[in-house]
TrEMBL record:
<protein>
    <recommendedName>
        <fullName>YCII-related domain-containing protein</fullName>
    </recommendedName>
</protein>
<dbReference type="Pfam" id="PF03795">
    <property type="entry name" value="YCII"/>
</dbReference>
<dbReference type="InterPro" id="IPR011008">
    <property type="entry name" value="Dimeric_a/b-barrel"/>
</dbReference>
<dbReference type="InterPro" id="IPR005545">
    <property type="entry name" value="YCII"/>
</dbReference>
<dbReference type="InterPro" id="IPR051807">
    <property type="entry name" value="Sec-metab_biosynth-assoc"/>
</dbReference>
<feature type="domain" description="YCII-related">
    <location>
        <begin position="7"/>
        <end position="91"/>
    </location>
</feature>
């Protein structure tokens, strides 16, 4: 088995893609659940233009993912399968896939992060976490 590495993945959204993002969100959450379970994606979420301001919508400008794979190419193949990629939310021409070496980690958090939150989001996909 090939050695796997952690990768920080920064994917900007196309300009004006928020409506597409909201429409694709339920399918995106279903898709990432299996990637988290398999360990291909460790964690992720929307990236923001600026820190959240109470009472205002978050200014989403893309996504940030920590992936685990043997190569940059395998990370990209997983990204390309996501509905945010296939529906035109993510701007894959501007993606950054950076190798990362974890110096500190909470292994129990690493193994469980994401799945309970994804399940909660799937139960009520009408609620956008950025609102």
């Amino acid at each position: 088995m090939a050695t796997k590495y952690d990768w920080i993945v920064l994917i900007p959204d196309h300009k004006g893609a928020l409506a597409k993002r909201i429409a694709a969100r339920p399918d995106h959450l279903k898709g990432i659940a299996s990637r988290i379970e398999s360990g291909a994606w460790i964690m992720g979420g929307p990236s923001l233009e600026y820190p959240p301001i109470d009472g205002q919508e978050k200014a989403i400008n893309g996504s940030c993912i920590v992936a685990n794979a043997p190569s940059r190419e395998e990370v990209m193949e997983e990204i390309k399968k996501d509905i945010y990629a296939t529906s035109g939310v993510w701007n894959l021409e501007k993606i950054a896939i950076l190798p990362e070496t974890l110096l500190a980690s909470n292994k129990s958090a690493r193994s469980s992060i994401g799945t309970s939150r994804i399940e909660a989001n799937l139960r009520d996909s009408s609620q956008c976490p950025w609102r």
